[in-house]
Amino acid sequence: MALNASARAENIDLLMSGLFQTDGPTYIGATSVSRDDIPDSANYARKYLIVDFRFQQQPPDSSLQASIHAICMAMIRDRDLMQRLTHQGYDMVSVAFDRRSQYDCL
User: Fold this and answer.
1) What does the radius of gyration of the chain's CA atoms come to, in whole angstroms?
2) In the predicted model, is pLDDT for residue 10 greater than 50?
3) Which domain of life is it from (predicted)?
């Protein structure tokens, strides 16, 4: 039995919520972006996931890079998450801490 799109998205959100229960930035959700205007043959991302986090207090830039690295590595090490993202057609994952900036992860 195939899961519908909202059930699959919910499962990804549940995986992410379980993965990021540590000190540091708080996981607030993920947004899927599809770029249908980019041809399948293009050499860049057509579908990507933006993983949103918020800090209680914005860290200095030197600590921000460490947070990005920790988040990206946690996702890469989670095989179930990586398999789900791959099966759902994601080409890239980005981390965001605000609405202005995104940091590419995978």
Assistant:
1) 14
2) yes
3) Bacteria
Number of H helices, E strands in the chain: 3, 4
Q: Is 34 helix (H, G, I), strand (E, B) or coil?
A: strand
pTM: 0.76
Whole-number Å distance between alpha carbons of 46 and 98: 22
Strands 47-54 and 92-96: parallel
φ, ψ of residue 12 to 5 degrees: the values are -60, -45
92 within 8 A of 85, measured Cβ to Cβ? no
Residue 50 has a CB neighbour count (10 Å cut-off) of: 16
Q: CA-based angle 90:96:97, to the nearest 5?
A: 160
Contact 49, 32 (CB under 8 A): yes
